[in-house]
Amino acid sequence: MTETSRRLVLAHRPSGMVDDTVIRVDTVPVPEPGAGEAVVAVEYLSIDPTIRTWMDDAPGYLPPIEIDAVIRSGAIGTVVASSSDTYAVGDTVFGMLGWQDHAVIGTEGSMAQVVPEGIDPTAALSVFGTTGMTAYFGLLDVGQPKAGDTVVVSGAAGATGSVVGQIAKAKGAGRVIGLAGTDEKCAWLIDELGFDGAVNYKTEKVAARLRELCPDGIDVYFDNVGGEILDICLSQLAMKARVVCCGAISAYNDDRSTAYGLKNYFTLITKRARMEGFLILDYLDRFPEAQGEMLGWVLEGKVKHAVHIVEGLENAPDALNLLFTGGNTGKVIVKL
């Protein structure tokens, strides 16, 4: 009897949240490795906001996912068959394996990184993976915080934002303030992660609270959400401030032509500030140095990470939607 494998493919371009009309489940035979290839049994999916942007037929840093193609996603799995000198059966690997039970690696464009033994797969996808690396390089290379700076982070209870705030504290920031969507998340930021303050953007007056918590202005603003929150923070920048544009999750489900228009960009001029975007793809060759420093912080208890596990490949679309409803704390991971 031939073994089968499930694949979640893009059936239609989404409009708004991902629903049952967007994703189709295909069942195919488990692939066999060709020359130089290996077959991976996928075990954990990395659920990241950028996946939603890849579903749109719009220009981006990677091509859109094609209709009828497997949903692109980082993932970790175990090599179960190999005709490759690079990958041995039993290796744990990380790569763009996609939303499927089995993936083929080893060809150009489908390479994967062998994960060292003893590394928790969920940590490899979060604090030591692209999430943690995004926080590290975005804050330190782009934000360039100095000792005593006031650092504000939006999406602070998410996978990236929660690590950004802790790195800022580890590097000597004077004050770290996070924005999150529930009182429970705000308490977690302060009580568990060591943030100096937090603002519930759903129930509090954000501009007024930031003026209270950051009386001398914001030196570094790490932006994960865009829209009105970004606009408010622009209005409260300190002299020579740095704004790190990591994501704009508030607009990912919307028509980009109707995105919120910034009103306070002129503050960049009056405060001689800098606003800069970045992509983690630009830092791949520097991951080892960052992972080494991150490991030290984790072992010292200076950086903690939370994961939100969703069970079942079929629930990957719901897991993605959690990022836009605020239903998660920390890194969202689907366990197959």
Report on this structure.
It is a single chain. The protein is an alpha/beta fold. It has two domains: 4-123 and 305-335, Quinone Oxidoreductase, Chain A, domain 1 (Alpha-Beta Complex), CATH 3.90.180; 130-281, NAD(P)-binding Rossmann-like Domain (Rossmann fold), CATH 3.40.50. The chain has helices at residues 50-54, 121-125, 130-143, 159-170, 183-191, 206-213, 227-234, 267-270, 287-300, 316-325, and strands at residues 4-10, 23-29, 38-47, 75-82, 92-95, 102-105, 112-114, 150-153, 175-180, 197-200, 218-223, 237-245, 274-277, 307-311, 331-335. Strands 3, 4, 5, 6, 7, 14 and 15 form a seven-stranded mixed β-sheet that branches. It has a six-stranded parallel β-sheet with strand order 10-9-8-11-12-13, sandwiched between helices. It has a two-stranded antiparallel sheet with strand order 1-2. Helix 3 (130-143) crosses helix 4 (159-170) and helix 3 crosses helix 9.
Which series of helices and strands comes N to C? EEEHEEEEHHEHEHEHEHEHEHEHE
Low confidence ranges: none
Shape: globular
Count structural domains. Answer: 2
Task: Report the span from N to C terminus.
Answer: 22 Å
User: Within the CATH hierarchy, at the fold level, what is the topology of the largest domain?
Assistant: Rossmann fold
Overall CATH architecture of the largest domain: 3-Layer(aba) Sandwich
Number of helices: 10
- The radius of gyration computed from the alpha-carbon positions, rounded to a whole number of angstroms, is 20 Å
Helix percent band? 25-40%
Number of strands: 15
CATH superfamily of the largest domain: NAD(P)-binding Rossmann-like Domain
Largest sheet: 7 strands, mixed
Find the structural class using helix and strand composition: alpha/beta
